[in-house]
Amino acid sequence: xxxxxxxxxxxxxxxxxxxxxxxxxxxxxxxxxxxxxxxxxxxxxxxxxxxxxxxxxxxxxxxxxxxxxxxxxxxxxxxxxxxxxxxxxxxxxxxxxxxxxxxxxxxxxxxxxxxxxxxxxxxxxxxxxxxxxxxxxxxxxxxxxxxxxxxxxxxxxxxxxxxxxxxxxxxxxxxxxxxxxxxxxxxxxxxxxxxxxxxxxxxxxxxxxxxxxxxxxxxxxxxxxxxxxxxxxxxxxxxxxxxxxxxxxxxxxxxxxxxxxxxxxxxxxxxxxxxxxxxxxxxxxxxxxxxxxxx
Length: 295
Ligand SMILES: *[C@@H]1O[C@H](CO)[C@@H](O)[C@H](O)[C@H]1NC(C)=O
Description:
3 domains, elongated, immunity, hydrolase
């Protein structure tokens, strides 16, 4: 498969880039010097080529050849908006899945993502999964996810599609001391439950500063939680079955406010008294004339 995807939010006046992707597809018979058969040759180009390609589109071209042949791609012209890691616009090619299908074993396939390079391919997994030693299969890995940004989103794997079975996830949020975390769950919220027994199948446990503040399941999302803490762990356990859609939360953090400074007697003066003091703010105390500041 060859897919081309330009950036979704490009401004109208942004510099346009010309893509000329001309792609003759040549086929070689494996192990032979037979000339390229007629008809086994084609061109793929970006829409509107040779004019600039349009914004916000995604196109996949599938090239299939008979067994025993392989595909060769030659780019004649290539002009895409450059960006780090091809974040904005890109062309990617995905695996030929059945190389040498004459062998008896079923062809090796990637469980999630497949990446071609000349002469081979390799597999990778979607975020939240780890490639297994066989180089093909992917297993959920969420046992020690750490979030240290001041705000962000956390969700169960595949959200809002059903989460995988047998998860043992630990999502930890750690923000700077002097900050407090707020958790807000989004809709849909759906974790397998039971009418009589509390969360017997799958459950989301929330720990604030190491203390359990609740186990959640069902379709009722938890209310907004003001944790008064800079440390939260979310443990998500699932059993071997079920098809609930999971959960997603938005967390934010805020610097804590301090109690108003108060004087102990009428001789002390607090300079420039502010209406509100936050963590790390300072104030200076002095004395009325003729008095001395005590320790
Ligand atoms: C979850 O991860 C945090 C941070 O690494 C750790 O302190 C906590 O003990 C973990 N909880 C469990 C149940 O493993």
